[in-house]
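Entry 14. Structure prediction run on the chain below.
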Amino acid sequence: MPYSLNDLRVVLVAPRNPLNIGAVARAMSNFGVNDLRVVNPYEVAFRDAKSAVGASPLLAAAREFNNIAEAVGDCAWVVGTTAIGHRDLQQPVKVLVSGARSIRAKLVRSPVAILFGSEKWGLSNDALSHCHWVLHIPTREEHQSMNLGQAVAVCLYELVRAKEVKTLALAQGNPATLEVVERITVTLLAALRSSEYINPKTGQLAEEKLRRMIRRMTLEEADAEVLLGMLHKILWKLQQAEKEKPAV
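Output returned:
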């Protein structure tokens, strides 16, 4: 069963340069990838990029989102990109060749999003907490980071150059979409806060750790719905118990 590039989403997180956004759109058009999504772009850059020559229809169809969770909600797999540098990454790292193989295999069964960070800072730890693994393009140590448009082009080329390779889906159920997985994360966080398991001072770090842990579970669609139902019941019971506490 061949994979389809129609199920690949390119997601730009907080891009600032219209030339880079335009270069990304042109690279996508070159390689036949049409789903561009942008999270919190610098508004002037995004507006100017839409008038760029070469990929106007693709840019015109690009969708804008307020946060990553919304941008990848219909995907079952999310892959980040990073130059690594001195970062202590919490996700598995795959170099481009092996990472592209994994993406092609996942595309057989479900949509995949590839996240690219801003030109200056890349992806934050919070952004990376949405990712199942991280993709790395090997470059020389003296100049590790790549231009945004170039990075997208290199990744897409690696994906399409083996387009004729046939991969088979595993004999198992459909994976849960990230919309459902994020709902599980949010509901579990609410339950953990209600039970006072999470320290308010370290809440953001706990949220990132929890999101990474849940994505490592690679839940199937049916299992995710059952788990979400359980968590809703647990949260409801905790909230009821809080309401019934006698006043001090």
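The CA atoms of residues 73 and 179 lie 4 Å apart.
Filed with the rest of this week's runs.
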